Amino acid sequence: MVESSESVMVIVVTPTYKRYTRVPDMIRMANTLAHVKNLYWIVIEDGNKTSQAVKDILDGTGLQYTYMAYPTAKGFPKKGWYQRTMALRFIRSNTEQIVGPSKNGVVYFGDDDNSYDIRLFTDYIMNVKKLGIWAVGYCGGSPVEAPNVTDGKVPSFNVQWSPKRVFAVDMAGFAVNLKVVLNSDAEFGTFCKRGTGAPETCLLEDMGLDRTDIEPFGWEGKEGQRKIYAWHTKTQPPYIKGKLETFGYQVEIE
Ligand code: UGA
Ligand code: MN
């Protein structure tokens, strides 16, 4: 039987933490994700408690979601690593609640500050059978980081920063099929030496993957016209001075 991609659940894992730009960042991301059918959003607050403002945004999407709070444990970088680990544990112990009995799903680690094209989810992520990889804009000190595709395979990566990593890819540049996640107990640890500090290659290698498993997306387009669907952006904090008066509006104060 051919499975239609309609029955594939896109599982997006997003660590988040309180800061001035978080609510607008999450609004932009929520507005994008709300367009995607079959999407389950796992949002993990780096803090002791969840935020009402974030919960209201999630409720507004109409998506299925789980929003939980886990402050970064001792020894972990304050960069969402621990929160993603808690999400992996949640996925493994609540698989059926998330995807139903089919177990068809793809896991994507989408940070709250990036910019995403809807087609990232509908054209790329939904179709990942094992490990999908694509270009990310404004990443690692480059205009774009991308897999180097030769004869449909990925023998190396077109990146400037730390190119020797087995998987020289940003978190926004890959997704793994749920089966890969369920067949391993890989988590984000407290450090990743092989990633020269970045966690991606450690996670993927610990999942038992190698470069021959890569399914590259988005590289076939014409020279100069290949599309980027994930951008590693960062929102500039606002300039706020004086009294932190909010006049009854829901504004998170740092
Ligand atoms: C870059 C990569 O794009 C990340 O995917 C990677 O995890 C990170 O580097 C890393 O070095 O480990 P960058 O843009 O520098 O990320 O970091 P942020 O976007 O500030 O943080 C990544 C995620 O963790 C975000 O979703 C953010 O909300 C969350 N975060 C950040 C927390 O939950 N707590 C924090 O204290 C900081
Ligand atoms: Mn970021």
Automatic annotation (TrEMBL):
Which pathway or pathways does this protein act in? Protein modification; protein glycosylation
Query: Which Gene3D superfamilies does the record associate with it?
Result: Spore Coat Polysaccharide Biosynthesis Protein SpsA, Chain A
- In the UniProt entry, which residues are flagged as the active site? E200
Which residue numbers mark the site Interaction with galactose moiety of substrate glycoprotein?
E145
Q: Name one GO molecular function term.
A: metal ion binding
Query: EC number(s) in its UniProt entry?
Result: 2.4.1.135
| Keyword Lipid biosynthesis carried by entry | no
Cofactors demanded by this protein? Mn(2+)
GO CC terms on record? Golgi membrane
Membrane topology per the entry is: Single-pass type II membrane protein
- What's the domain of life for this entry? Eukaryota
Give the similarity note: Belongs to the glycosyltransferase 43 family.
| PANTHER family (UniProt xref) | GALACTOSYLGALACTOSYLXYLOSYLPROTEIN 3-BETA-GLUCURONOSYLTRANSFERASE, GALACTOSYLGALACTOSYLXYLOSYLPROTEIN 3-BETA-GLUCURONOSYLTRANSFERASE BETA-1,3-GLUCURONYLTRANSFERASE
Annotated protein name in UniProt: Galactosylgalactosylxylosylprotein 3-beta-glucuronosyltransferase
What organism is this sequence from? Caenorhabditis briggsae
